[in-house]
Amino acid sequence: xxxxxxGAEKSADYLSTDEWIKRxxxxxxxxxxxxxxxxxxxxxxxxxxxxxxxxxxxxxSAEGFKSLKxxxxxxxxxxxxxxxxxxxxxxxxxxxxxxxxxxxxxxxYYSNAKAWMTSVIFNNWLVKWGLELKxxxxxxxxxxxAHTNKSLLTHWHTNFxxxxxxxxxxx
Length: 171
Prior knowledge:
alpha/beta, five-stranded mixed beta sheet, 3 helices, 17% helix
């Protein structure tokens, strides 16, 4: 049996994480209800990629192929109760042809050359959400360099950025 390592799994500090979850996290969320406690994280969606592995019969064969790298980044956000925010999707094209004639999308769409999360996109998403909020919330995000708060948000826990990977304090 083989195990595949994914993303930042190698760099995760599990000891610090366990300590932080037991010691600090309960104090932070004590004043928030489950509907006001959120987690957000992004993932790459390779929408043209073929499966990396193929199961074959003993004498079967399969030809190799070059994996397509076309991707979008998707930010998912939900609260402890399971209520989901609209997805944030980041693509390469500013005006994708598939959006021609589309008046509204069920997601927030942004673009940049590599379809990656940037601090500008993240802050725009936060500000838009912050304008909708009528109450204070806490938001848990990882320590990605794009997850910086450069704006004054009134409806957020003062230390709403928490490190999921290393948990060595607040940003």
